[in-house]
Design brief:
Length: 371
């Protein structure tokens, strides 16, 4: 048996556990200091911006589109395995365009997507008025409709990944903190170039043997990598969001696309419920960011400006979370920890961890099976 220890059971760690559970001969343990989906994942809105992303090529676009494809298969698979429904919006994403926004680049992007089998449609004001009567079109000049993009409930998804992974033999240790990692010396101590190897993972409930260590610990990845003398700098960017309720859904039906404009998402949850968010609040002077009431109010006012009916909504719940953002390099970090043969990083997913989790899991699988 090859022992794999995964630190972190947010959406990224859970997706990796589920993906790896399909490989014969692996004994997989996931360790989290909390219950699953409590950190960034528990705060996320689950908006999956794949085809609507402005990227036209490269690894990040591949990861995004893989995420959409994989969720289309995973969600029904997980629902069947667990018997639990997962909120999964298949109505797509409608991205609002405003005065002065050049539409030409969207036409070009639509042509590129269509050439790769994805759809993007440019809607003019008249089409918007007919299809989305909830919109205030005063400032909105057009919109891009991406029918292939999705939205998923991140906590329900993560719980389902955990349940399905348990069914496939994965062990989970919750309320257990990884406090140390024991690297052994280089296989050949005479060679400076030889890679180190992690052998034992020390937790608050004992030690685990590890042939592979996968660090999917979000913000907790920095102290773990520092303990291995290879610090990876992941910093918090705070996001606030709110769940609101209307007596009835906006628009022609309760199942509508996610609306997104000026970085604000309006996420329909069915009936008259919506998530609105999210703020993007950076740390000031390296201090842990704290929720700013003005920032949340600004997001809500923007949502009301797009859909005036939201002014009548009651607030069900407001929350905040910390996105794990890699400092000085692009998100996410999915690679071998420098200097180590068997330590893999799956961290720093910043604003798109839910979307990028399936492709992250796929990359980790490839790193393990190809070695
Ligand atoms: C308000 C908000 C809205 C968002 N909206 C979206 C969205 O619409 N779409 C999208 O794709 N993404 C969104 N995101 C981003 C997304 O939430 C993150 O990118 C994603 O959740 C990161 O997942 P993760 O599993 O890497 O980290 P986390 O969910 O933070 O999980 C890391 C886990 O590691 C555990 N851990 C850390 N250190 C240790 C240790 N030493 N021992 C044991 N366990 C440890 C923690 O307890 C935690 O459970 C949003 C984020 C926020 C805050």
């Amino acid at each position: 048996m090859t022992h794999v220890v995964i630190v972190g059971c947010g959406v990224v760690g859970a997706a990796i556990a589920y993906e790896l559970s399909h490989i014969e001969g692996l004994s997989i343990t996931v360790v989290d200091r909390q219950q699953p989906a409590q950190a960034a994942t528990g705060a996320a809105l689950g908006v999956l911006m794949g085809a609507i992303s402005t990227k036209t090529k490269g690894n990040n676009l591949w990861m995004r589109l893989t995420g959409i494809e994989r969720y289309n298969a995973w969600v029904p698979e997980l629902e069947a395995l667990t018997g639990q429904p997962i909120l999964f919006n298949r109505q797509g994403i409608l991205r609002l365009c405003f005065e002065d926004e050049p539409l030409e680049r969207w036409r070009e992007l639509a042509a590129i997507r269509i050439s790769h089998g994805w759809r993007l449609e440019l809607l003019d004001r008249a089409q918007l008025a007919a299809t989305y009567p909830q919109l205030n079109l005063e400032r909105i000049t057009a919109a891009i409709y991406s029918p292939d993009d999705r939205q998923v409930d991140p906590a329900a998804l993560t719980q389902a990944l955990v349940l399905a992974a348990v069914q496939r033999g994965v062990t989970f240790e919750f309320e257990t903190t990884v406090v140390g990692v024991e690297p052994c010396d280089r296989a050949n101590p005479l060679s400076e170039l030889a890679l180190q190897q992690c052998q034992q993972v020390h937790t608050t409930s004992g030690s685990l043997a590890a042939d592979w260590l996968v660090i999917a610990a979000g913000l907790g990845s920095t102290p773990l990598t520092a303990a291995l003398q290879q610090p990876v700098d992941i910093r918090p960017v705070l996001g606030q969001a709110v769940h609101v309720r209307l007596p009835q859904p906006m628009g022609h039906s309760q199942w509508q696309p996610v609306l997104t404009g000026e970085d604000v998402h309006i996420v329909p949850l069915g009936k008259g419920d919506y998530w609105l968010g999210a703020t993007v609040e950076f740390p000031i002077n390296s201090l842990m960011p704290l929720p700013d009431a003005v920032a949340l109010d600004t997001v809500m006012q923007q949502a009301i400006a797009f859909c005036p009916a939201l002014a009548e909504a009651t607030i069900v719940r407001a929350w905040s979370g910390l996105r794990p953002r890699p400092e000085g390099r692009p998100a996410p970090i999915v690679e071998r920890l420098p200097g180590y043969r068997n330590v893999l990083l799956a961290t720093g997913h910043y604003r798109n961890g839910v979307l990028l989790a399936p492709a992250t899991a796929e990359k980790i699988r490839q790193l393990i099976v190809s070695t």
